[in-house]
Amino acid sequence: MTSSDLLVYCMAKSGAEQSVHSDWKATQIKVADVLFAMVKEVEERPAVSLKTSPELAELLRQQHSDVRPSRHLNKAHWSTVYLDGTLPDSQIYYLVDASYQQAITLLPEQTRQQLVK
């Protein structure tokens, strides 16, 4: 999977907005100002940081060498996934979906309802 493929998938989510975090040289994808994905190069490899439950984050890190704690984000919840590694694209898409859903739950009810219209 390429960074471009991932960005297209993320931006297809309802309410998704893209911005650049210049300090981290990363593209942030947010829904209503809540971050759900950060696409960047890590060690010269395409990668994305995604939010999961701490339990899932730990399990993924144990099972896949291409999943690591995110450097600039809460390491209990945020994992960096290499896009060119061993994790199948379908699992990366699932993790994007899960991260987006977690972001949605943090939004006020009225904002959530507007997103599903």
From TrEMBL:
<dbReference type="InterPro" id="IPR007351">
    <property type="entry name" value="YjbR"/>
</dbReference>
<protein>
    <recommendedName>
        <fullName>MmcQ/YjbR family DNA-binding protein</fullName>
    </recommendedName>
</protein>
<dbReference type="Pfam" id="PF04237">
    <property type="entry name" value="YjbR"/>
</dbReference>
<dbReference type="InterPro" id="IPR058532">
    <property type="entry name" value="YjbR/MT2646/Rv2570-like"/>
</dbReference>
<dbReference type="InterPro" id="IPR038056">
    <property type="entry name" value="YjbR-like_sf"/>
</dbReference>
